[in-house]
């Protein structure tokens, strides 16, 4: 594969990792006597609650930003800092997994209410996919000349 294509894959991964932090991590839906609706909480919103660890979304966000910085550096020909792209990918994967385990632990200990349905949502999966893309794109782009 061409080096520019691999870098774009890595950059897309960094973007996905950053965006995934602001997408829903927990979905809530309720059915009541007078209301029916749904809400979701992003990883960024959950950091201010006691639902998950305060620090949980930060590694995914930092990993995405680091991957973006490394990807842009490689696109501009600055090879010495190109290692940031795969490192950002690894960090984003770790942050997404941390978010997944935090949300799963919360959902396993929450009291169930018949009118309220809590479920994990897709935000941390987007962080993990973004981290994998950044890792693959970054590692392979560093290997190609």
Please tell me about this protein's structure.
The chain has one domain. 61% of the residues lie in helices and 14% in strands. It has helices at residues 3-21, 43-46, 57-75, 84-109, 123-143; strands at residues 24-31, 36-42, 116-120. It has a three-stranded antiparallel beta sheet. The longest helix is centred in the middle third of the chain and has 26 residues, at 84-109. The model has no long low-confidence stretch (mean pLDDT 83).
Top keywords for this entry?
alpha+beta, 145 residues, 5 helices, 61% helix
Give the arrangement of secondary structure elements.
Elements: H1 3-21, E1 24-31, E2 36-42, H2 43-46, H3 57-75, H4 84-109, E3 116-120, H5 123-143
Antiparallel strand pairs: 1-2, 1-3
Helix pairs in contact: 1-3, 1-4, 1-5, 3-4, 3-5, 4-5
């Amino acid at each position: 594969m061409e080096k520019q294509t691999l870098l774009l894959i890595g950059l897309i991964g960094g973007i996905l990792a950053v965006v995934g932090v602001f997408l829903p991590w927990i979905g809530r839906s309720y059915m009541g006597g007078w209301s029916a609706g749904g809400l979701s909480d992003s990883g960024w919103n959950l950091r201010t609650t006691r639902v998950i660890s305060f620090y949980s979304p930060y590694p995914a966000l930092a990993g995405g930003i680091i991957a973006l910085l490394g990807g842009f550096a490689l696109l501009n020909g600055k090879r010495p800092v190109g290692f940031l792209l795969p490192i950002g990918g690894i960090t984003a994967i770790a942050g997404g997994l941390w978010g997944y385990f935090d949300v799963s632990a919360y959902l396993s200990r929450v009291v169930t209410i018949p009118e309220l349905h809590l479920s994990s949502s897709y935000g941390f999966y987007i962080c993990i996919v973004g981290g994998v893309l950044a890792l693959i794109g970054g590692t392979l782009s560093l290997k190609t000349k």
